[in-house]
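Q: My labmate handed me this sequence with no annotations at all. I'd like to see what the chain might look like in three dimensions before we decide whether it's worth expressing. Could you predict it?
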Amino acid sequence: MTLRYLIAFALTVLSSSLYGEAYFVHGTGCDNSVWNDVIRTEIRDVFGHDDYTDQVEFFEWSGENNTFARIEAADKLLAHILESRASFNIDEPCITLIGHSHGGNVILIATQSLRKILGPDVDINIITLNTPNVIGGAQLADPDINHFNIYCPNDKIIPFAGFNKSGLQVDFSEDAKLKNEYSHPGDLDSGKKGSTSRTFGMAASNIAYQDQYFLKGVVPIKHWSCHRGMLPKNVEQWATTLRVVANQETEFHLSQTSEPINSAN
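A: Here is what I predict for the chain of 265 residues:
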């Protein structure tokens, strides 16, 4: 029996078994209504997770547009994961966290402590969807966590989603706690502190998709934000690639003979 056959067999078993759970984290100014059945089902299918209730999968936070709110949310997310696993007797060694927009930044902050609370044997996947890579902000703290970043190259929100715009919060001092944070859109991909990028250099894979939604009118044009990767037609755009890359990442961990790929265009 060859190594390739064993890997293929293991992947089949993994993809057909239900184990572990997924957590969905909404972004700034939103709530859990952004998560539809299409994206929830797709994430469960890709990573082989069981179908848990909204009580487990949904995490609610204030959605305020500042770093303090996201730090507070990350602490509460960690508590929610521990409480959910205890209450529902979840002990399988795999979880996936997916965050839309700043929800992905909440997850990145949480990764600073996630391994410590879950232990060394749990396989952790995080998915950042339309999430700004904020220079000087939280980055993935554990290289053993699988990070899949899904983005639209035309996303109009991410250039504003940092914290370096003049006159607003730049030092995270306590008196700025309730202020909104923005970044100069012209600083996109500049590398300046507080500016943003649509991709993550340390991600296991940056997966691009093209927005499939249009504004109504005589001449249909794409929805201006291109920041809604959780909508069903957009999920269909990126889900197939995510499935392929996730399987390749699993194969890498099984064989430890190859490097994860980057599928960004």
